[in-house]
Design brief:
This protein has about 425 residues and is of the alpha/beta class. It contains 16 helices and 11 strands. β4 (about 50-65) and β5 form a beta hairpin. The radius of gyration is 29 Å and the shape is elongated. About 30% of the residues are buried.
Length: about 425
């Protein structure tokens, strides 16, 4: 088999396209494939009218996947068709690249695969190309793939915020909790973000009134947004967020008391960590303190009692009785941070109890946020919110219409999906 025919098949080309020349330059560390179109007539790319004459040919170059350690490029003089029907002169599309791109489809698919696991700047260095060009590839494919998603079956969502850049720059993330996938992301964290979600849902075959359950933190903005734009959604206040508020209250008591009691120095994380996960050092340092009359110890016992209620997972009716007794204890404890915590839970009573009925939490959402923030840390931040959102969808969106990894077998793709 001659090399031109071999690489014609390797590139997946069919008539009238074929490799007609190969230029290998080991000193320049590159290999160039020259592809020609043998046809004299082609269908019009605009209106589809068949057998239209070729008007002229324009030279184009695309970066391809490396050939061993050598950078590979595809060159072609791309025909433009002069159509007698629509009277337009239009350039035909080549089978190995999308219109307007300077990379082949296989190169772009591999770049997307790498970008899931490493910063785009690192991916660009590995592929020996420009990171700005890769961002254009990533933004294009993620936007196109997300636009094709079907959200007609979404009924249960988790809403949370995550930091986009330093300072007060946040985006709101909405996840489908049943399918465990990110379905919406937008800059901001106010009530209008959920208006944007309801509109985006409609563009993906969904309806705002089909959302029956929503797990959120106690953000006033999200509560208001759900009431205005997703009126059928029963609100569950995420139990992890409630325990986080309880931890903050305990730490506030500790900070006030540590100034007067040296025993509390270097014990912060033990008071905030589940006792079952204490290290041996934490256990030795703190266990006796938990049984003392320290204010911090009293606050910790109140917090642990609340944690025990959530971990027991009682039914709604039983949970209400347990929470009433807990609330009475916390309200009368004479520790201002714990009293404020009790008041906060009382103000959000219905949503807290709904969690025992729905069983929902934002545990999965928080796990995805951790992955997203880890990616941001590796990249040392992203220049724009749109870039950050693209990475969020790449990591957590489970997008079905992204180009497949060219090095995966069909079985591996099936398992990955």
């Amino acid at each position: 088999m001659n090399p031109e025919l071999l690489f014609t098949q390797a590139l997946g080309l069919t008539s009238p396209w074929a490799v007609d020349d190969i230029d290998f330059d080991p000193k320049a560390q590159r290999i160039d494939f020259r592809v020609s179109c043998e046809a004299k007539q082609l269908p019009c790319p605009g209106c589809g009218r068949s057998d239209q004459p070729i008007h002229d040919r324009k030279p184009r170059t695309w970066r391809h996947l490396d050939f061993f350690q050598f950078a590979a490029y595809v060159h072609a003089e791309v025909p433009r068709v002069r159509c007698g029907g629509c009277k337009k002169t239009t350039q035909v599309e080549v089978p190995w690249a999308r219109p307007g791109s300077r990379f082949t489809l296989l190169f772009e698919a591999f770049a997307l695969t790498l970008a899931k696991a490493m910063p785009v700047s690192t991916t660009a260095r590995q592929l020996r190309t420009d990171d700005r060009a890769l961002w254009r590839v990533l933004d294009h494919h993620v936007t196109q793939a997300q636009a094709r998603e079907d959200y007609s079956t979404v009924t249960t969502i988790g809403v949370d915020e995550t930091a986009c850049r330093r300072g007060h720059h946040y985006i709101t993330l909405v996840h489908d909790l049943a399918e465990r996938r990110l379905i919406f992301a937008t800059p901001g964290r106010d009530a209008q973000t959920l208006k944007g979600f309801s509109e985006d849902l409609a563009s993906h075959q969904g309806k705002a009134d089909q959302i029956r359950h929503a797990s959120i933190d106690m953000s006033k903005a999200y509560i208001s947004g759900l009431g205005q734009h997703l009126p059928n959604a029963e609100i569950t206040f995420d139990r992890f967020h409630i325990i986080q508020l309880a931890n903050q209250a305990v730490d506030a008591v500790r900070k006030s008391e540590v100034r007067h009691d040296a025993r509390l120095k270097r014990t912060k994380w033990a008071w905030l960590t589940d006792m079952a996960r204490w290290s041996k050092k934490q256990d030795e340092a703190v266990y006796d303190l938990t049984r003392s009359n320290l204010k911090t110890a009293r606050a910790w016992r109140i917090k642990e009692a609340l944690r025990d209620i959530f971990q027991a997972k009682p039914g709604r009716e039983q949970a209400e009785g347990l929470l009433k007794r807990w609330h009475s204890w916390a309200r009368r404890c004479r520790l201002e941070p714990m009293k404020r915590l009790a008041a906060t839970i009382k103000r959000h009573w219905a949503g807290v109890l709904q969690g025992f009925e729905s069983g929902l939490s934002n545990g999965y959402v928080e796990a995805m946020n951790s992955l997203i923030q880890a990616a941001k840390a590796r990249a040392r931040g992203y220049g724009t919110a749109s870039h950050f959102i693209a990475i969020c969808f790449l990591i957590a969106g489970k997008l079905k219409h992204l180009p497949a990894n060219p090095f995966q077998t069909p079985l591996q793709r099936m398992v990955a999906s």
